[in-house]
Amino acid sequence: MNIKNKEIYPDCLSITRTVEVGGLTKSQLMQKMQQHSILMNELGEKLFTDDYFTTSAKTFSLETVELTIRDLGLPKGDTLTKIYERANHLGLELCPLELGPYLRLGYLDQPEGKSSQQHQAPNGSITVSSETLNNEENFPKGFYLRRIKGDLWLRGYIADEHHVWDPDDHFVFVKQSGAIV
Question: Is residue 40 part of a domain?
């Protein structure tokens, strides 16, 4: 059975989570991820250790929304720029980059993903929408969460401004404060 969801946010299936962010230094955050056996790829480590990636000293809560690109009203997928513009129009904001590690720590029961094609978001992965720290071609653009063979990953990814994301790729955004949806 193939069910097509023709509704767009907020009238679509989505997953909301309240995520506690902040309160740890980068080294404390890394230690906490290691305690939970969370792995990082080389791009994730490069992004995490970059001087521009900072953590908040204060703890705060964010209400996140996980949905597909199709749920944003983009049935053919689109580029990050268009995806982010559309999400903003629908009352969603980009996540602070530090949300990635905290979301990974809070989502330890992520289902197993399947293998995927090269240059595509892996099946079962969740991309954390965020501003890019560096526009260099080979610098990671953000984090995504994945479970592979039972292992939890916080991975970095590279995508240029022409890359078209699949309509079924999952992204996480933050609900705009005061947004009426």
Answer: yes
Contacts of 114 (CB under 8 A, 6+ apart): 122, 123, 124
Q: Supply the DSSP symbol for 162.
A: T
Count of the separate structural domains present in the chain:
1
Amino acid present at 109:
D
User: What's the pTM?
Assistant: 0.91
pLDDT tens for each residue of 64-78: 999 999 999 999 999
- Tell me the residue range of the domain where 164 lies: 15-175
- 23-36 confidence digits (pLDDT tens): 999 999 999 999 99
Dihedral of CA atoms 40, 156, 173, 76 in degrees, nearest 10, equals -130
Could you tell me if residue 10 is inside a domain? no
**H or E stretch including 139?**
none
Cβ-based burial of 91 (10 A; exposed 0-12, middle 13-18, buried ≥19): middle
Residue 151 within a domain: yes
